[in-house]
């Protein structure tokens, strides 16, 4: 049985259609290094609010959730527990569940399976989206889907422009029906041949002759699973990843033998789901489909020009998302309000130094002749005189000396940048000090292994 922290914010008893699971270990920690050296990915500040708060707010807006399970390892459990118990003020009942280190997303679902008793939402802690969740849920109900996945359409290419090979190497090959509501095939670039060709089964082509394959859709790592998908994980104990193993398996099984699926539970669950969703108005063909225990895999595609959907799993994505939210460019996630403080003391030039497209937390001090443009400054930072910051993310309690010049940089909590230092495309880890006059370009200023080991021994 999974170990868990005491729950909080108890909600009144009422029917809850979906449960929700947030994976705090699904974020790509290496892609966010050195930001995650000492901070859980789920608690990285985006426009001065924890990344985890965006998934919780998404579920709150959906207005159908009561309990949310947040999965965390021992390494980050204490920090996440402090956030949930002391800082989270939302309406959801958040239950932290301790899981072993190194589990894949499918393994994590097996671990928490005893707590799940209905269809559930699985979401990664690195997702920020203003998805209208009820529309996605409606599609899931309509198709009685085994799984419904969220995809975001990428920026369209100019006419005649070819997609770069590097972009294709990380792309998913997503096969959809003409209405872009049913997920018919899903393959990663690694499954393609050396010539970039994919193998599509004859049974799929016979069933779906108008299949369209897309390479510009981002898998947002938000899925609604039918409860019986947990039984598939029991039958397939070697599945470690929901994204790379469970999801493609279910997609393939739509058109192949159902012999390796939990038939009895599938048929019963599918029939109940279809009857509930369609009622007495369901067509005879649809009711027959339910009785036969067939199923579909659905998808909800957010158009490029509609809505916001970003996975914060790289340094570039983290910077962009922080600036997007800080500028108020994300629907529902509006620009954080400026701190309601007394007039800055004489010598604090914070109001005249920050541009209109920058954001700041409380207690920020800025010296004379400084300029902060397109940046996000965390609370209780001290910025010296004649400083130039452009397109930077500065977390809380950071000290920046006089005459520092930084562009496209991320400085983590409690770090210090010495006078006259110059940084471009650089990252400074938590608690690090950049020496006065130092020059760093395109590198991470982080704690080395020797220093970390020595600290642990002390």
Write structural notes for this entry:
By secondary structure, this protein is an alpha/beta fold. Helices cover 27% and strands 23% of the residues. It contains 13 helices and 31 strands. The strands form seven sheets. The chain has an eight-stranded mixed β-sheet with strand order 1-6-5-2-7-13-9-14, sandwiched between helices. Strands 16-19-22-25-28-31 form a six-stranded parallel β-sheet. A five-stranded parallel β-sheet has the order 17-20-23-26-29, with no helix packed on it. The longest helix is centred in the middle third of the chain and has 16 residues, at 263-278.
Topology readout:
Blueprint: E1 3-4, E2 19-23, E3 45-46, E4 49-50, H1 51-62, E5 67-72, H2 74-87, E6 93-98, H3 105-112, E7 120-124, E8 127-129, H4 133-143, E9 147-153, H5 165-169, E10 172-176, E11 183-188, H6 202-207, E12 212-214, E13 217-225, H7 229-235, H8 242-253, H9 263-278, H10 284-291, E14 297-302, E15 309-311, H11 315-326, H12 350-353, E16 359-360, E17 365-366, E18 371-373, E19 376-377, E20 382-383, E21 388-390, E22 393-394, E23 399-400, E24 405-407, E25 410-411, E26 416-417, E27 422-424, E28 427-428, E29 433-434, E30 439-441, E31 444-445, H13 449-457
Parallel strand pairs: 2-5, 2-7, 5-6, 9-14, 16-19, 17-20, 18-21, 19-22, 20-23, 21-24, 22-25, 23-26, 24-27, 25-28, 26-29, 27-30, 28-31
Antiparallel strand pairs: 1-6, 3-4, 7-13, 8-15, 9-13, 10-11, 10-12
Helix pairs in contact: 9-10
């Amino acid at each position: 049985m999974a170990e868990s922290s005491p729950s909080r914010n108890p909600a009144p008893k009422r029917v809850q259609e979906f449960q929700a699971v947030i994976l705090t270990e699904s974020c790509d920690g290496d892609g966010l290094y050195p930001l995650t050296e000492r901070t859980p990915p789920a608690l990285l500040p985006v426009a001065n609010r924890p990344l985890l708060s965006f998934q919780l707010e998404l579920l709150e807006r959906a207005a159908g959730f009561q309990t949310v399970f947040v999965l965390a390892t021992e390494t980050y459990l204490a920090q996440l527990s402090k956030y949930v118990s002391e800082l989270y003020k939302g309406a959801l009942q958040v239950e932290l569940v301790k899981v072993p280190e190194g589990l894949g997303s499918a393994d994590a679902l097996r671990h928490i399976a005893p707590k799940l008793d209905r269809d559930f939402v699985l979401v990664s802690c690195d997702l920020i989206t203003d998805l209208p969740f009820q529309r996605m849920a409606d599609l899931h109900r309509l198709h009685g889907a085994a799984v419904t996945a969220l995809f975001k359409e990428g920026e369209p290419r100019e006419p005649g422009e070819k997609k770069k090979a590097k972009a294709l190497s990380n792309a998913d090959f997503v096969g959809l029906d003409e209405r872009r509501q049913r997920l018919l095939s899903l393959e990663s670039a690694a499954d393609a041949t050396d010539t970039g060709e994919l193998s599509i089964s004859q049974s799929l082509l016979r069933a779906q002759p108008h299949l369209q394959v897309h390479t510009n859709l981002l898998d947002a790592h938000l899925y609604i699973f039918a409860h019986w998908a947990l039984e598939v994980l029991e039958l397939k104990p070697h599945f470690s990843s929901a994204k790379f193993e469970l999801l493609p398996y279910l997609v393939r099984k739509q058109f192949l033998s159902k012999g390796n699926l939990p038939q009895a539970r599938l048929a019963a669950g599918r029939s109940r789901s279809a009857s509930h969703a369609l009622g007495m108005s369901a067509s005879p063909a649809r009711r027959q489909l339910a009785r036969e225990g067939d199923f579909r895999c659905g998808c909800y595609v957010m158009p490029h020009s509609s809505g916001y959907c970003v996975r914060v799993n790289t340094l570039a994505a983290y910077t962009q998302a922080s600036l997007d939210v800080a500028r108020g460019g994300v629907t529902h996630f509006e620009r954080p309000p400026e701190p309601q403080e007394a007039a800055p003391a004489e010598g604090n030039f914070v109001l005249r130094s920050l541009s209109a497209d920058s954001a700041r937390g409380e207690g920020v001090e800025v010296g004379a002749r400084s300029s902060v443009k397109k940046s996000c400054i965390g609370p209780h930072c001290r910025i010296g005189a004649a400083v130039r910051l452009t397109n930077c993310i500065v977390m809380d309690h950071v000290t920046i000396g006089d005459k520092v010049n930084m562009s496209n940089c991320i400085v983590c909590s409690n770090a210090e940048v010495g006078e006259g230092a110059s940084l471009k495309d650089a990252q400074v880890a938590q608690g690090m000090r950049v020496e006065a006059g130092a020059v760093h370009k395109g590198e991470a200023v982080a704690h080395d292994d020797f220093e970390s080991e020595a600290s642990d021994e002390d």
